[in-house]
Amino acid sequence: MSWSIVADSSVNMYQMEDLPMGVHYSTVPLKIRCGEREFVDNAALNTREMMDLLNNYNGPSGSACPSPEEWAEKFLQADQSIAVTISSQLSGSYNSACTAAKMVMEEHPEKKIHVVDSLSTGAEMVFVVERCVELIRQGADFETIAYELDHVKDYVGLQFVLCSFENLVKNGRMSRISGLMAGVLGIRAVGRASAQGTIDMFGKARGETKALALVLEEMDRSGFKGGKVYIDHVHNPQAAHMLARAITAKWPQAQIRVGMCGGLCSFYAQDQGLIVGYILK
Asked: What are the Cα distances from residue 97, in Å, to 69, 71, 100, 213?
């Protein structure tokens, strides 16, 4: 039986290596629109070019989720498919994937498709994908895998460190009142993915170092003991590695990976932003 693991591009991971035989991983791209220009969020996207254009553009900009047809194309390539999407509270990607799954299974009832609403983005989606691969290696059946993946969100955390919420507010992903938190020069605001799949802003600090300290405090408070930590940044490797060193100092056994945000996460986290995901068990 062949497997297709598909994530929308807010996962920030466009390819995987060392997959079991018969398992294929791919992404479907979200799109970022800036005036008449459209950027496709895939491995070829130059996020620096995109951010430079956005930073110098005063008109409307926004994002668009993958179409059902794009999801369906991936589902048709395997006997069993797992889709992982950004939070349904932040994008229409989940609904689009569900529509595609229904379309494909109506025409091909022999296929099995399950769509996971991560209620998050970035690293939390990566953790779902990695758990899926692990369960396939163990020989778990489709129903067991679907159940387990729906509960990954119960033991992972995600935080944001942002300098600006302009794009989140303008595109309705955050209230204007919450967005004012980062309106003062030098203020960094720290948020987390809520259990409901929304963005919960819980702290602010003047300067990056103090903001990163809030991240560590929240990790400790939430029960982090030193597992996997994935840090994605928007052209801010200095802060990402500073946080990585601080995590290692506090939890020497932590397994840390630092990477770059893709297009969609760069658009919403904006320049200098960080997205930090971690496993609690």
From this structure: 9, 6, 5, 37
- By DSSP bridging, strand 3-8 and strand 23-28 are parallel
CATH of domain 3-30+65-150: 3.40.50.10440
Cα–Cα distance for residue pair 42/40, rounded to 1 Å:
6
Nearest CA-CA partner of 124 in 154, 97, 98? 154
- Give the integer Cα–Cα distance in Å for 211 and 76: 45
* Residue that the structure tokens 């025409």 belong to: 107
Q: pLDDT of 35-91, one tens digit each?
A: 889 999 999 999 999 999 988 888 888 999 999 999 999 999 999 999 999 999 999
pTM score of the predicted model = 0.92
**Fold of the domain spanning 155-279:** Hypothetical Protein Tm841; Chain: A;domain 3 (3.30.1180)
